[in-house]
């Protein structure tokens, strides 16, 4: 939610800031702005626009965009509607200090009232403007530099923030700070340039040397000098530089019309990457074996777990539901799957020998991070399953496994979901074989099947054109039902979420049999019903009975079936086939046509697939 970028160094800042904003636009895109201290007269130039970064570029055309220090922002509105006046950067009353912010200042109303009493006035409805005026007030009161003013002002703040601030009287300086919102600082070897970003994406092409601030740390960055980091009390902190490399090609469409489609098509390759070095040949022969370093390191704690709790949100929560089935099947350990946002406020019963798995693509979701901290406070071992390398959840978890699917830019999560399920399958198998709850034969068969999944996804992707044509028939719909049973029930939920978020069509995912207890009342000739009905287990015939119930009420069925399934084909409106695999791994194949279906319906409706309204990729506020 909101992306922030900053630069200080010898180059012109504007092109770096704009490129960085484009790279962070997935985090929010309802307005954008930038501030630069002009090369010519140290004047502070601020440009803002409602809309996307391209609108900001248009509004800055022909104006003074010179300057080698600057900050910029792309917004996802929390306080105050998307508008130019509410866009960041916000300006202090003296006209020198300006600030960009990601997060929520929870006590902003109290602070605002106190500042109004002291004669401050406000132009916007944002909590951020309160923060910049508070810094301004603190600076005047203490007669100090920007770093000290920021640090002392933040001591009065309750809430979450990642901020970057500049003062046009101090063009040699940029100050940033964070608490519960992400912030990365890129440092060029000789301290000649510094890059700020909400994540490494806007920094990666300039340097791989990154400093991550901890909560309540303030960094004072001065031209050509080593960076200084302080806690809010003013104690200097030692910071470690981490080497973070990103595959920059992954940050481009690579010839696809949208990131979402590219990321759907990335899946065979990135799932192979995800398994590389983790599914290996056993040292005793040619049998496959799974090797996860986190499991080796924490074997004792993982094996003694009597219970596992999975915490996550959105698509990652759906992956968690599949993880529950995998872990319970292979390890016979009871698993609960909690929405992180509920878990954190639920007085959870966590014993010190429970294991909590936090699943997150971004690694920055505020609720998942808070749930992780709650679990740690209760003494549980926290295992992170994360994509964002160096992200907050990756750093704060006790151990974990990266899904390694590369940056996911489309707001609708696709390859992260299959990456998460792949890691959960490897984790369940690694624990199951160590506990002796899975037979050697089932272990090896499942690993061979898992290794074959990328090639099978390739086969599903060959049906892209067919799914596109099918999708064009459904743009009329206002509602969709997605039904599945067993391993396909979480897939039904995920298919419905994909459709909702990018096509704005209301969709509900349901266990197919549960549909009789209410949602069937919605079914008429207009209602598309997507069944996920693969034929490898006992639930297949039951699902067919559920299909009959829909057919009797004239619903229009699209069925995801196993290749060669003639029975369902003869019954329903449309089928999409997926290759056969074992039950536990079916979601890795059945979700692919649902991703494509949602994508093509949204494209056929002319919608902005990668940046759907009201959403942001990384939900860093609660
Ligand atoms: O980064 P995370 O996996 O923690 O994000 C969780 C959800 O915000 C995310 O999955 C969201 O539901 C996606 N937009 C779904 O496509």
Quick structural gist:
It contains 19 helices and 26 strands. The chain has 622 residues and is of the alpha/beta class. The protein is globular.
How many β-strands, per DSSP?
A: 26
Strand content: 15-25%
**Largest sheet, if any?**
8 strands, antiparallel
Number of helices: 19
Q: Find the structural class using helix and strand composition.
A: alpha/beta
Helix percentage: 25-40%
Distinct bound molecules: 5-amino-5-deoxy-1-O-phosphono-D-mannitol
Low-confidence stretches: none
Describe this structure in words.
This protein has 622 residues and is of the alpha/beta class. It is 36% helix and 22% strand. The protein contains 19 helices and 26 strands. The model has no long low-confidence stretch (mean pLDDT 93). The protein binds 5-amino-5-deoxy-1-O-phosphono-D-mannitol.
Set out the fold topology.
Elements: E1 3-8, H1 13-24, E2 31-37, E3 44-50, H2 53-60, E4 69-75, E5 90-91, E6 97-105, H3 108-117, H4 127-142, H5 146-154, E7 159-167, E8 173-179, E9 184-187, E10 194-197, E11 209-212, E12 217-222, E13 228-231, E14 242-243, H6 259-275, E15 279-281, E16 288-290, H7 293-297, H8 299-304, E17 308-312, H9 314-331, E18 335-339, H10 340-343, E19 355-360, H11 366-377, E20 381-386, H12 392-396, E21 399-402, H13 415-435, H14 440-461, H15 464-471, E22 479-484, H16 489-503, E23 506-511, E24 528-532, H17 539-551, E25 556-562, H18 566-571, E26 574-578, H19 587-604
Parallel strand pairs: 17-18, 17-19, 19-20, 20-21, 22-23, 22-24, 24-25, 25-26
Antiparallel strand pairs: 1-4, 1-10, 2-3, 2-4, 5-6, 6-7, 7-8, 8-12, 9-10, 9-11, 11-14, 12-13, 15-16
The structure holds 5-amino-5-deoxy-1-O-phosphono-D-mannitol.
Residues 313-316, 360-362, 365, 368, 411-413, 497, 501, 618-619 line the site of 5-amino-5-deoxy-1-O-phosphono-D-mannitol (M6R).
